[in-house]
Amino acid sequence: MVYLWGIQAPRPGQPFGAEATEAAGRICGGKRLHVAARRAGPEGRITGSVVAEETGSPGEDTTGKDTTGKGNAGKGSSGNQDVGRALIRLGLAWQDQRGPSSARLRSLEQEARREEVGLWQQEAPTPPWAWRE
């Protein structure tokens, strides 16, 4: 298991928890995943950045250009997608305020808040580190 560096997604049972899990599955499904480990913790717990690589098939557009009008959450110009960035951009995760993060993640979260996407549709979403079932 790899924990995504710099983000915190809603927990199972928490509002938008299932949506975050489903979105991560869609982003990663059927793709080659590249993990850049940033640290290893107890019991082999790895925290790192994960990029879902577009594998493509002959004739398939893997450029990352948006032809759907839905945006390219977390996609680079090659069509590869950083999973953590994508979840934040979709409003399905917070940038982790309890540990190291990046200016890019903070910027993506602010954009999702302004656009009121995902969990930012709620009046006062509770971050996972403060949530109690």
Automatic annotation (TrEMBL):
<feature type="region of interest" description="Disordered">
    <location>
        <begin position="97"/>
        <end position="133"/>
    </location>
</feature>
<feature type="compositionally biased region" description="Basic and acidic residues">
    <location>
        <begin position="106"/>
        <end position="117"/>
    </location>
</feature>
<protein>
    <submittedName>
        <fullName>Endonuclease YncB(Thermonuclease family)</fullName>
    </submittedName>
</protein>
<dbReference type="InterPro" id="IPR016071">
    <property type="entry name" value="Staphylococal_nuclease_OB-fold"/>
</dbReference>
<dbReference type="Pfam" id="PF00565">
    <property type="entry name" value="SNase"/>
</dbReference>
<dbReference type="GO" id="GO:0016787">
    <property type="term" value="F:hydrolase activity"/>
</dbReference>
<dbReference type="InterPro" id="IPR035437">
    <property type="entry name" value="SNase_OB-fold_sf"/>
</dbReference>
<keyword id="KW-0255">Endonuclease</keyword>
<dbReference type="GO" id="GO:0004519">
    <property type="term" value="F:endonuclease activity"/>
</dbReference>
<keyword id="KW-0540">Nuclease</keyword>
<feature type="domain" description="TNase-like">
    <location>
        <begin position="1"/>
        <end position="122"/>
    </location>
</feature>
<feature type="region of interest" description="Disordered">
    <location>
        <begin position="39"/>
        <end position="82"/>
    </location>
</feature>
<keyword id="KW-0378">Hydrolase</keyword>
